């Protein structure tokens, strides 16, 4: 019997817009059309092409959703919400049938049909592709356009979570790029202009398949400093901001701002296992044992959030926890004594205040057990270059991936995974994750993931620090903000947003 993959309800619940503390004016309670909405983000969008991953990060996913609208969106409790697709079905986890909504078109009027989807999948699957979705695309053994709206896919091996890949870059169908230009999408908005290092401006896409956006213009501004970005709401520089620090999320909610928040972000660090000192498990375990995560939670997150215990986020549909090693500086010293050599390394991080606070606390903890850690603060572009080039000793990684267990486990931990920035290679872990992909039984999959997660935690190629809420906060003039409290990922269509000045 063919199994229809479960989809969450297609309507996103709207939260009431409430007055911003300290501002005058009534809360807008009915949608209005027109106007410009400005959103402050923490990441400079240097490329709009999904193959370059920038529009698929947690904080910038709203940009990708606006321009491309993925085939599916992340829904409540780990479900899927239809985007450009109507459904995806499988009866054996190997053969999949993807059905598109009828009448789709790119912003230039050219059809977004089954052939366009196949061309996009092939582009992402190219061995030279830089997309983190490349392995997911490469597992498509054959693709056939049964008709304009139906794509039949056969995978090289069963994959119970293949559909989860269609919420980000792999599901953001584009036209083939021409020259140095950006590809086109079929989302509710099209790119009007870009100003590198400053902003991206979008206009409504006249070819959009759904209801026309309520806004005349949507502007994304690059505001890297967390506190300044938050203050830009009251100054009127922007109408809505991305928040990824737990204290500001709490402040926004206390002040009565409209928010779209999920407990979705994990602070971690990759340790480069391909070169000294972290090619030795004793050094990795020593660093892990020397770090008091409770202190990090207080110093960097003002005590708001949870401790992370591994690669299965607390919001994951798989309720599996690991036995994460306790803070034990004496154990760290024993491991270092057994290693027998001085340990010094560079810790790469960005300039966000939260990152600086976390790094400073870790530096002191490691010094207490005799490890010399040098903090190397770089910009976001350099962070990405070093991470993808594996040009680091240790590098901070702030991500929402661990709430999406199926895709995170497959894209980060197998030896050849594109997100395996640590260079971690454990055949047992790779095998457990492979077996999990082959079963439709969620309980069995959870058990396999749990076994893999415990090995990962024990061998420490990644340090897991804290989990914190993140998302968007908006002024009282903004409406259409969805309730994401039951979501693991901050993902929604900005076509539903409106502003009433």
TrEMBL record:
<dbReference type="Pfam" id="PF00496">
    <property type="entry name" value="SBP_bac_5"/>
</dbReference>
<dbReference type="InterPro" id="IPR030678">
    <property type="entry name" value="Peptide/Ni-bd"/>
</dbReference>
<dbReference type="InterPro" id="IPR039424">
    <property type="entry name" value="SBP_5"/>
</dbReference>
<feature type="domain" description="Solute-binding protein family 5">
    <location>
        <begin position="80"/>
        <end position="410"/>
    </location>
</feature>
<keyword id="KW-0732">Signal</keyword>
<dbReference type="GO" id="GO:1904680">
    <property type="term" value="F:peptide transmembrane transporter activity"/>
</dbReference>
<dbReference type="GO" id="GO:0015833">
    <property type="term" value="P:peptide transport"/>
</dbReference>
<dbReference type="GO" id="GO:0042597">
    <property type="term" value="C:periplasmic space"/>
</dbReference>
<dbReference type="InterPro" id="IPR000914">
    <property type="entry name" value="SBP_5_dom"/>
</dbReference>
<protein>
    <submittedName>
        <fullName>Peptide/nickel transport system substrate-binding protein</fullName>
    </submittedName>
</protein>
<feature type="signal peptide">
    <location>
        <begin position="1"/>
        <end position="21"/>
    </location>
</feature>
<dbReference type="GO" id="GO:0043190">
    <property type="term" value="C:ATP-binding cassette (ABC) transporter complex"/>
</dbReference>
